[in-house]
Amino acid sequence: MRGIYVGRFQPPHNGHLYCIKQALNKVDELIIVIAAAQYSHTKRNPFTAGERYEMLWGALQEEKIPLNRFHIIPAFDINDNALWVHHLKRLVPYFEVAFSNNSFTTMLFENAGIRVEHTPLVERTEYHATTIREKIMKDEDISRLVPPFVDSFLKKINASTRVKNASTSIDDPRKL
């Protein structure tokens, strides 16, 4: 059986990794969708789709998750909630179940006739990308919040400067 897990991964953190591993306990393969792939260098979406892909790939490899167990697919946001699941279904391989803890995402999948399962959340207030981006902006240590590969990658791309610069830019008002 194949499942799908959607996130923006701005950046991927240990909460995401935990949910991915929980989903992989229930399916043979997991499609991991990098949502809003066209956005980067903004306060809410500072990292490119390519950077998010590389961070996810590295974190999953670090966890020794076999390559045949997952697919990582970037997907542009179409800004049309009624068509969003159908848009995803055009982009990704067939899947039978969606994994989500977001009530709106759950509703969209269920309205499209897709079964949704929830994965347990761990330390949701700590493992939250907005909180992690705020810590990056303040040059605080995030090493316990993100996989080691992600921590190293963020340092390599000088994420602190990126997030600080992005936080002072004006985001597209449609994304606020």
Q: How many domain modules?
A: 1
Mean pLDDT: 92
Shape: globular
Strand order of the largest sheet: 3-2-1-4-5
Supply the number of helical segments. 7
Q: State the total count of DSSP E strands.
A: 5
Task: Determine the strand fraction and express it as a percent band.
Answer: 5-15%
Work out the radius of gyration: 16 Å
The main β sheet shows up as: 5 strands, parallel
Low-confidence stretches: none
- How far the N terminus sits from the C terminus, by CA atoms, comes to 36 Å
**Can you identify the CATH class?**
Alpha Beta
Quote the CATH topology.
Answer: Rossmann fold
Tell me what the CATH architecture is. 3-Layer(aba) Sandwich
The helicity comes to 25-40%
The CATH homologous superfamily corresponds to: HUPs
Order of helices and strands: EHEHEHEHEHHH
Describe the structure.
With 176 residues, the chain is α/β, with parallel strands linked by helices. The relative contact order is 0.22. The protein has helices at 14-24, 49-62, 84-91, 103-111, 129-137, 148-156, 159-168, and strands at residues 2-7, 29-34, 70-74, 97-99, 115-117. The chain has a five-stranded parallel β-sheet, sandwiched between helices. It has a single domain (2-168), classed as Rossmann fold (3-Layer(aba) Sandwich). Strand 2 (29-34), helix 2 (49-62) and strand 3 form a beta-alpha-beta unit.
